[in-house]
Amino acid sequence: MVATVAFATFSLTLLPGVDLGDTGAFQAAVLWPRVSARQAYPLYYALATPFVHLFSLSNPARGINLFSAVCGAVAVGLLTWVVSTVTQSRVGGIVSGLLLTFSYTFWTQAIIAEVYTLHLALVGLMLVGVRAWEQRPRDARLVALCAIYALAFGNHLSTILLFVPLIAFVATADPRPLRLLHPRVIGSGLLIAAVGSLQYTPNMLALWSNIESPHAWTDRVAAFWFDVTKADWRATMILGVPAGNVTDRLAMWAWDARQQFGIIGLALAGLGAIALWWRSRPWAVLVWSAYLVNTIFALTYNVGDTHVFFLPGHFFTALAAGVGAAEVVRRGATAAASHPRLAMAARALPAAALIAFGLWRGWETWPAADRHNDRRGEQLTSRLLVGVSDDQALLVARLNWDQENALLYAGRYLEPSAPWVRLYDVMPHFAYLVRDNFSIGRDIVLTADAATRVAGAYGQQFPIVEEQTPAAPALSAVASGIRRGTPYVLTLLTPLRDYHFDTDDIGAAVRELTGRDNRTGQTYEVFAGVAGDAPLLHTGSATPFVRDLSIAGDDFRIRMDAWLPTDTFRRGSFGHVLRDRHRVLFIERGASLTWIAGDGTAHVAYAGGLYAPQPRFRIPAPTSRLASK
Question: What pTM was computed for the model?
């Protein structure tokens, strides 16, 4: 039942199409015949590809998003069952499942193409194996647990972090712990590991058959390991957080934990962590060590999406909270045991309150996590590819990696007749590329960054002209077009260095909306009110916050749901503006503006970030209509 609630929640809030970042890369690759060593998630693709074939062949992006929802529901169901059996309390299982379902980060990963819900489903399956072995400690069940563990490496290499917790559980629970050192046990483990590694055979074969692969087989194996583990950047990120940033990371961890479960949920988890020690020492050792190992790794892993590496910790926090809920119900029943008339109420009321709290977490989080009408990915790629076709123009793009992944999906599935190439692939022979396209009457269309680099390299050799459509108006021009008295919310979040952020233009937009430019330069800054008047709300902060206010009779909530500057990219945006529980703005880094027109329609504009409109440029072919004009 809890898994069904989870799946219904995820499917109703599912992202309907393509997204930026790693999600776009997964969506682009799921049905693509080519495999590379760097595409190192063989189990994920082995399960997702047939799923998409069966349920969403016409829309692969939505199909693989739905696969994440299924995996998320499975993870929730397995967690619920494990907690229920360990505590002998259905209420404990239900509470743990609901808290995981409605935790913000898990929810946002369960509605997009990502590997993390499958990872937690496999973690849940390992715990089922642990419970089965605990009930009947046979070698066959231990082998089955090892097989699940080895299989999980085909989805995410962070599975290695569970090695010590699992060994610690078996050693603590087994009356003969030295049995783990028996040659037969060690040999079986090594054999299972070898079989599990065969999942990467297609990746190895792809590298082996690549014409650019090294000649010596030892060098090919080294190159395979380099690509699969992504050692080029991962080696600098593991334990890569500078000592001066430790305090900020710890503050982020505390804020993130509260974002997922609230104070009550964390209190339940603390109670459950203590109660677990008295109920089952092996389970306490497993849960404590798994939480600590995964959380320490996340805190010291120097990446731009640290929040997703907290997810295993969230899983074990929800487990502990379920144990805590079971303990509350048990103590209530024990206290009322001497009063038979109160016994039923003493059991039912705490149980109902705890389940209601879990459901309330869903009510609170739903408007921010819901992405069922988020079409920004398609809008971005359509803007890039408008007017690009086999007989009209070739797009030469230089984009940020997360935008490029969405364009990769669009070029394969949404608009396969729109040709495009990466600038760095063609820059050495760009002049010949232009000549050959001119020979068949095709223009060259350039993204803004590509145009800058081509002009820098080739000077006046090519007549590069800026296109008038699609338009890329400045934010100040957008703000000047908003009628006086119109409700608006403008957020300013510290921009990334990779994006052009015109501070003068932003200042002009603030003056258009508020009458003066009094920006504070804080990490998070909000202006809200009606255009042309002093803002009803102007606030800035160095840490995330939530603000509620009323504008023109409507209730607005402004949520900052990311930790800056640590979060360099966030699936589902860095925050949200809600109007009467309906989202009207995804807040992104840079400037994000929404205003409510007279007919009640919410309009949106971005500047200095991922979704900010950028001008396009064109090198017209001599025979094209533009050149003739």
Answer: 0.93
